[in-house]
Write a structure and sequence with these properties.
- It is built from 2 helices and 5 strands, in the order αββββαβ.
- It has 115 residues and is of the alpha+beta class.
- A 3-stranded antiparallel β-sheet has the order 2-4-3, with no helix packed on it. Strands 1-5 form a two-stranded parallel ribbon.
- The longest helix has 29 residues.
- The mean pLDDT is 77.
Length: 115
């Protein structure tokens, strides 16, 4: 067998074994998926109370906040004025990407502790 033939045979073996591994991975992800459990607070999001004083939130509604990075909400665990958000919740960098990516091969469960 020539060097060229050995290289070609090696590539075919790698292709077949790589294809088999990918096929098995897809099969397992559909028939017996991995279950990933996420803790919502301080893993996927982070809340700050009170809202930092350098931001104008007294007149800001949830729809006016930037939904890609944070949202303002009323947290009834802390003092608040009628219809004025008192908590800013930030979406952690990479959280959406991590949920999307792991959703390709697993089932994501997101939980938070009740107080």
């Amino acid at each position: 067998m020539t060097t060229h033939g050995a290289i070609r045979l090696g590539r075919q073996v790698l292709f077949v074994s790589g294809s088999s591994t990918i096929t098995y991975g897809i099969y397992k992800s559909k028939t017996d998926p991995l279950h990933i459990v996420w803790d919502l607070d301080h893993t996927l999001i982070c809340s700050v109370t009170p809202i930092p004083s350098n931001t104008p939130t007294a007149t800001m509604t949830t729809q006016q906040s930037h939904p890609l990075y944070y949202f303002d909400q009323i947290d009834d665990d802390f003092p608040y004025t009628e219809n004025i958000p008192n908590t800013r919740t930030y979406i952690r960098p990479g959280a959406k990407t991590a949920l999307w990516f792991t959703g390709l091969f697993a089932i994501n469960h997101v939980y938070t502790a009740a107080q």
